[in-house]
Amino acid sequence: WTEQVSGTNATLYAAHFLDDQRGTIVGALGTILATQDGGQSWVPQETRGAATLFDVVFTDPTTGWAVGNAGALYQTTDGGIRWIDQTLPCGQTCTRLTDLLKVRFTSPQEGWIVGERGMLYRTVDGGLTWSEGKSMASSTLFGLSFSNAKHGWASGENGTIVHLQQNQ
Asked: Which residues contact 29 (CB under 8 A, 6 or more apart)?
């Protein structure tokens, strides 16, 4: 491990690299940093909000997602030059202040978000629309991983583990 200079004092929460050169890191106060040279230099990217961002993922070199506190959801379709605020649907169990903690995509079209109080969202159209799902957990979910498009696991508070198994 070699320490790199980020150019910020903000707390940084998550990193996603497309390859050994191109990566993005997110953190407190809407911080988004990008590198095109393997971390030798980090360039701030602009968001319109100051939400703390807890996770980031890219499905290809141009399309990415970042999630954070108070329901913050940002999408980029230009490699991170602009991050556009997105709005999630808010059903009976949702509050607009729910922290979104992890985002993962199993394909360019299908993605998942988990967060506080077992919140779960899914898209099947590349993020054009999101639907609120049921994780069967009431605890906050921090981790999300998929072995393939049909099997995923989320983990969280109080020893919570939930398994997604799609039969279609």
From this structure: 10, 50, 52
